[in-house]
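protien #1 (seq + structre)
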Amino acid sequence: MEQSSPLVRPLEQDAGVGQNVVGGEASPRVRRIQRTALALLLLSGIVNYIDRATLSIANPLIRHDLGLSVGEMGLLLSAFLWAYAFAQLPAGALIDRFGARVMLAVSLAMWSVAQAFGGAVNSFGQFFAARMVLGVGEAPQFPTSAKVVRDWFGKKERGAATGIWNSSSTLGTAISAPLLTVIMLTVGWRWMFGIMGIAGLALAVLFYLVHRDPHQVKLTQWEREYLSDGEEEVTARPTLRDWRRLFGFGTTWGMVLGFFGTIYVLWLYNAWLPTYLQMEHHLTIAKTGWVAAVPYLFGVVGSLSGGKVCDVLARRGVSAINSRKYPMAISLLGTSIFTVLTALTHSATLAVTFISISMFLVYVSTSAAWAMASVAAPANCTASIGAMQNFGGYFGGALAPVITGFIVQKSQSFQPALFVGAAVAVVAVIGYWILVREPIPPMALEGDE
């Protein structure tokens, strides 16, 4: 047992063997660990999304100072997404092997160094490398969050917890524009990158000092029973063979396909919403900045609601898998419907209304999908299956801006691009509904071929 630091002493030492869990509730000590963990995950997720936005916010100044073309800037913007997508697969396996505490601290430090380096670059090549490292470094964030929820929450509470940390994505997106703009106008774009890098490094140290994985805490038997919540306990570190065998289950591929459609639609809006409002509805740039923020506020509510719905269904007797599957599939289908309505309307007010509903539903979908990661596979493979799902999502996320751009360029309209996004979502729903059926059992991973 490693020595406890003063910062973590209240989390590890204030509950003796005599403290137990009453009626399936967590002990006061576990509740404090949960609250601390969620606060750190929410904060790191917000920093994660703010760091992604720095390049977009400083786009004109960077192009001017470094003499970059619009095409080169497009390559810089896409570098992060591709690196982030393909780094998911090894990231999940590493998280399950080394634990959330080590991996999130390391990843935070890695992406923060890359972020700080972005403020010191002098060429396209240096900036491209920094953005690639940023993508690799940020890859463990969400699979680690899923792992922490699986580690520290009972099965019927994981949905709400997932909704809280998942809301960091839309909170970070909403906060990034005003915060980064103020910093940039005050100290310049280079120091904007540097300040965010320093903040991330401080957060990495804080997470490592405060957070503990379950095996690093002396849990009582009652606490272990609450955390397992009737699930078969699997504590062995997963092997490469275990990781490979996850690909042999329809549930894995259903999660990959479903999240592909979810994140495709999300990045269709993330990448093109301001331009859509300007081109299709002739909003000014100044007005677009305020109007485009409205859907993300709905996204925060959707993220929190999606996780809560999963828990409510689970408490009412719906199976662990179906309590996630139903909200995920229904909300993604709804996203498709309102994306079609967005394409058909000629009213700016209705368009923003439909997009806001779409964002609400797509974040219900993301929360339910990440909540699925906490029940779809054995505990020692939670991050692995979550990362596989996220790989599928961000493969779609990386394709969406490019496909949308080519369609708009050829048709001079966003309508066909929105129809394509809606169709992708429908195909994803069908695949998710058919393939995600049963949790992956531990024996299937540990048994012989």
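ok now protien #2
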Amino acid sequence: MDRYTQIQTFLAVCDAGSFTAAAQTLGLSRSRVSQLVLQLEQRLGVTLLQRTTRSQHLTPEGEHFRRQCQLGLQQLDDAEHKLKLMADRLSGPVRINSVGGLLGEHYLARMLTEIVDSHPDLDIRLDYSSQRVDLSRDPVDLVIRGGDDPGSGVEAERLGRLEHRLCASPKYLNRVGFPHHPTDLDRFNCVTGTPTLWRFRRGNEQLDITPSGNWRSPSSQAQLLAVEQGLGIARLSNLVLKEPLQAGRLVPVLSDWQIENTSIWLVWAPRLELPRRVQMVRDHLIRRFHSIDLGAL
């Protein structure tokens, strides 16, 4: 068995969290997956995964090896992808509707410039309107949307998950105090966006809270500005929170509670065959989004 298959199997176990889940993903038996990982460990002469009767976790050597393998595989993938872009010259319009904010206006836009740089005859038409798109009716090729479900009657690929936190400015919290439980939020001004419910989890406990306040906007940048100015408490993603939290302009609120994450989907119409230019843009976006960790940004 070649080393590439062993490494792929090891990475699948890391990503899936168990030998059983990895076996389902790879279409192999659990015993075969375990055998491949063991062969890899024997060939390397180190233990990569510490097994117990109920779980397994990476050893320090395993974590280091995982990072190096992911980097190497990504470099191979990039090399193949760039060669394919050079070999296939595409032209014509590709119409995309997307969520806005940093996700759509920075990360997505940058990914699209990469493919247009290789295919200057492509005509990218990027729209950030929040109106729900019907792919069977509207003149749109690809849609990027958030939610638990991409919708019915479509083809979809989950691009990742956005992690969220509650946060507020020190100025606001010094003035009104800290909430100690999600149910306390009805006494605080909340800076809100599109979601009408904030879902909290802690252990086996789950709560749905309907936030209220005097500032509502679908734009995460507008919410960030409002909360930095001390208008209230906001639920924002790590895409916009990393720098303000590090700089101390915002601080976490109710950090002992987990806030429900948001799945990000790339959606397209279930046609027998998409135009080749749309396929290329779709595959490029899937590859690029899968190469980053949205929750860690």
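Residues 88-162+263-296 form a domain with the D-Maltodextrin-Binding Protein; domain 2 fold (CATH 3.40.190.10).
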